[in-house]
Amino acid sequence: MKQPLELWGGLECTVARIGDTFRDQVVETGHHERLDDLDRIAALGIRTLRYPVLWETISPATPHEADFSWHDERLEHLRSLDIRPIAGLCHHGSGPRYTNMLDPGFPELLARHAGRVAERYPHLDLYTPVNEPLTTARFSGLYGHWYPHGTGYGPFLQCLVNQCKATVLSMRAIRRVRPDAGLVQTDDLGKTFSTPKLAYQAEHENQRRWLTFDLLCGMVDRHHPWWRIFLDHGISERDLDLFLEADAAPDIIGINHYLTSERYLDERLDQYPDHHRGGNGRHCYADAEAVRMPLEARELGPLARLRETWERYRRPIAVTEAHHGSSRDEQIRWLMEVWQAAQALRQEGADIRAVTVWTMFGTVDWSSLLTQNHGHYEPGPFDVRGSEPRPTALAQATQALARNGAYDHPVLDRAGWWKRDTRFYRSPTRRSKACRLVGSPRQLLITGGTGTLGRAFSRICNLRGLDHVLTSRADMNIADRMSVRDTLADHRPWAVINTAGYVRVAEAEGEPDRCFQENAEGAAVLAQACAELDIPLVTFSSDLVFDGLSGRPYGETDPISPLTVYGASKAEAERRVLALHERALVVRTSAFFGPWDRYNFAWAVLNRLGSGQTFEAGADRVSPTYVPDLVHEVLNLLIDHASGLWHMTNPGSVSWYDFAVAMAQRAGYDTDLVLGAPGEGRDTTLTSERGVLLPSLAGAFERFFRDSEVQWVEDFKFRAAAE
């Protein structure tokens, strides 16, 4: 009987050398210090795990010494958890400082490390000596991103051959200790598409993408189209002959497939963003993501790539990395698409063994291929930005797939962005069938439809393919129990996001009853109704629940002490909501600013200064919050089923005066027009003990101006069309 499709796990463990600097993703994501991460993985039901036993971390200074102490503890713990490791020995690395991929001694040195690992851990029976040889060779030998920073076909092919040779010699060394050890060989097999003019370049790249597996399977003989190319670029026949024995042909071919893996080449440069521009010396062209082009759906994606791999090699296959650095809904959609593709191909008779949920604890700076130190973090099944790793919705999906082979979430009622018409650089002439709905998608309910936050949620839900209904007070009065119950019964939302309420802080002092009715009573009524129907609820609170006298940023567990009616109403709302609904998420935030309306502090500053008037701002310190950042991360938390109290602002602290000056400087206005208001300021800056999720305040300021410029252009086009 055929075994069911397995779900494996993997940790992003790259040790990349860039110049003389090494970056270790195991350290940067914190796994290096957390032995109990392995218990978290086991609790998800994962029983096979790609795990690092990396050369650079065991023998960093000299090949004559080896420190296995960190790995001893972890590999023994994996044994106790009944998890089978796939030992990775070199992961996107060029080796320790004393060698590199262009060193003729590189293969023998890695094989020496492999033999040591096999001798020390004879229970290990699956290995990946070198992860993604072709991809690493491109990044290190052709594009110059990583050490040894080659930029031509000579270093590229030498890096590739040395890595594949290292794989052959490593497996020989391992099998002297463990004869039945299996090779799980990974690489990215993204396909290239093109305009007719560039078909020759696409064909070249589509031959090139198979080279890792063709070499190891003994297919690169004198009749192979790349045999002469290797020789012409300095690779010896002796090195190529080594592979003809095929004694390191993969026992499992591991496909690492990403949305950006498939490319489209187009000589019409003006139709693409500048960062896609490139060329081959013969033609200049854009190299863009193929999913953004109106190609036939059956030509793209994991099913097509897995099928052609099976047809070419007829060897067991696993998807050894499935990850998408995007919003949580898109991460789930991508994982499920890969899983369903593997299942579909199994039904056709292919030997597909597993899908691997990659980057269990996330990645850092892969958005720049590790070449920049921005600290840009992408979560995986666990988010490590808090005091301990927090399970995300991907962890829930992982557990369900590992145990039951199935998973459901309302976000799966819509296709991912790569199948929606908004993805195209150029609008297609006809609507994509993949964008159409099947059945009635489950939807969110968002209150506060006339306010800044409610409209921002609606806008970003549209962007992310999250079906929703946006209600105003005329549609539902949240302080009226009957109105709330009727509306929830009509729409049957899978979650409610409450952005309604009284927002005029100064005026609240003169009408406290109304403020409390709208902020506290309304939130409580909504919380009780959602609790009765077991509907998750998100509602918002304020930094003004604090008096600003502590002299330090406030965390979630700090005692509240509001000084204003508005702050007191929010404090009462928090108390009642959390008491009434255990699945409620209460988000404290502060000082909204955003690009999509003109009713916030940032726009007030720009409007006054732009007309040559002065602007007076106070000394109170706050932590401003960029609305798009807030909305995206709140939606992620909602999808993750997060609950309780959470502080969410862009990390940073400024006075209102400093905030105004920052806006003036970036807009090119005279900062002398910004005047400081008299008096000492209070400090209601927020921080989070649960995890700082939003990007930096400085970056938010920059994106505010970029996004506001885009919005101004959109508004101008709309007005022009109306006229």
Which structural class matches the secondary elements? alpha/beta
Within CATH, the superfamily of the largest domain carries the name Glycosidases
> So what's the overall shape?
elongated
Which spans have pLDDT < 50 for at least 5 consecutive residues?
Answer: 712-723
Number of domains: 2
Overall average pLDDT: 94
Short structural description:
The protein has 22 helices and 30 strands.
In words, what does this structure look like?
The chain has 22 helices and 30 strands. Helix 18 links the parallel strand 22 and strand 23. The strands form 9 sheets. It has an 8-stranded parallel β-barrel, surrounded by 5 helices. It has a 6-stranded parallel beta sheet with strand order 20-19-21-22-23-28, with helices on both faces. It is 38% helix and 16% strand. The protein has 2 domains: 6-422, TIM Barrel, CATH 3.20.20.80; 442-722, Rossmann fold. The chain is α/β, with parallel strands linked by helices and 723 residues long.
What tags apply to this protein structure?
723 residues, alpha/beta, TIM Barrel, Rossmann fold, eight-stranded parallel beta barrel, six-stranded parallel beta sheet, 22 helices, 38% helix, 16% strand, disordered C terminus
List the helices and strands and how they pair.
Blueprint: E1 6-10, E2 15-18, E3 21-24, H1 25-28, H2 37-43, E4 48-52, H3 55-58, H4 69-80, E5 84-88, H5 106-120, E6 126-128, H6 133-142, H7 153-177, E7 182-187, E8 192-194, H8 199-208, H9 211-216, H10 227-232, H11 237-242, E9 252-256, E10 263-266, E11 277-279, E12 284-289, H12 302-313, E13 317-322, H13 328-347, E14 352-357, E15 363-364, E16 377-378, E17 382-383, E18 390-391, H14 393-404, E19 444-446, H15 452-464, E20 468-470, H16 481-491, E21 495-498, H17 512-533, E22 537-542, H18 565-580, E23 584-589, E24 592-593, H19 601-610, E25 615-617, E26 621-622, E27 625-626, H20 627-639, E28 644-647, E29 654-655, H21 656-667, E30 674-676, H22 697-722
Parallel strand pairs: 1-4, 1-14, 4-5, 5-6, 6-7, 7-9, 8-10, 9-13, 13-14, 19-20, 19-21, 21-22, 22-23, 23-28, 24-27, 25-30
Antiparallel strand pairs: 2-3, 10-12, 11-12, 15-16, 17-18, 26-29
Helix pairs in contact: 5-7, 6-7, 12-13, 15-20, 16-17, 17-18, 19-21
